Amino acid sequence: xxxxxxxxxxxxxxxxxxxxxxxxxxxxxxxxxxxxxxxxxxxxxxxxxxxxxxxxxxxxxxxxxxxxxxxxxxxxxxxxxxxxxxxxxxxxxxxxxxxxxxxxxxxxxxxxxxxxxxxxxxxxxxxxxxxxxxxxxxxxxxxxxxxxxxxxxxxxxxxxxxxxxxxxxxxxxxxxxxxxxxxxxxxxxxxxxxxxxxxxxxxxxxxxxxxxxxxxxxxxxxxxxxxxxxxxxxxxxxxxxxxxxxxxxxxxxxxxxxxxxxxxxxxxxxxxxxxxxxxxxxxxxxxxxxxxxxxxxxxxxxxxxxxxxxxxxxxxxxxxxxxxxxxxxxxxxxxxxxxxxxxxxxxxxxxxxxxxxxxxxxxxxxxxxxxxxxxxxxxxxxxxxxxxxxxxxxxxxxxxxxxxxxxxxxxxxxxxxxxxxx
Length: 422
Known about the structure:
By secondary structure, the chain is mainly alpha-helical. The chain has 18 helices and ten strands.
């Protein structure tokens, strides 16, 4: 009996392309069947990416959820009449995210890349996320703009989006810079990865943006800093509250000009014997994985120049000594009930103090402006002013923190001798 020779395809060492060609030529499979199988495999790949439960509800509809970072619960419900239609919707969603990302998808690609590579701090990420939702997801002039496929957006559309957003939100120039940072980040990231042809430089040129387009908020000096007399009354009262840690902290800000977040983050080791406060950290608000904002301490200051040694006047020595005497033991200088005193505790106490003294309440940050103005009025060197304030140079101090605190009568007394013909 003649034995039949057995062999397998491996013996022939055929490539996948050769096998496919043989199958098609011999009618073992048609192109339509091959295409259908490929689509089925691709759909299955996207379905495996889906982490949410798929179920048929009592109303007969097939239901599930899709990721949605614009919502608090980070997902949105969808339903279809058949399971096949629902799976098609699921596959379409993930395919779109992978091959044709939306504006929102690119925003998170860019923001996450920045965060993971140390180019963003977490609080910067959270602030940009909030601004993205405000300007892109909730924009009434461009509804659902965040869900647009980024590759379909033209430069002319972006020009219109930018200009109408400025008008709709009545943006100041400062607010616009934050908005524009997001626009640049999204579209530069997308363009560098061939997701879009939009060039943000051209958008800026076409929009013909000038500072005159933005809302200007007139600064009322009376609402920017405490007067000398008000500061004397407040500090005199605070100094008498020897057992009140919050009052002593506020008094220390009047004598040092530190930011309220820096005050809350101080540690006992930051108090130097030579009458110097070493500023190195600050309180920050960051969102956890559930999107809930929580307060914590960042070991780095707000800016590079923010890490500094603040020289204290002699009157602050007694305040520091009293703080050390009444504080609880713990990691931070301001501890109460076993916990770090947060900045809102100091804000609340300042508000109540002003109310008690009959002085118009100005937030704690205005104490810093009061301090900066006092330094500028005292003709201290620019270098020392900048160092005390934690600014890179004194121009920031004089532009933002220098307030005219003279009364109308004092202004008149100063102007009178300056005008000989008056």
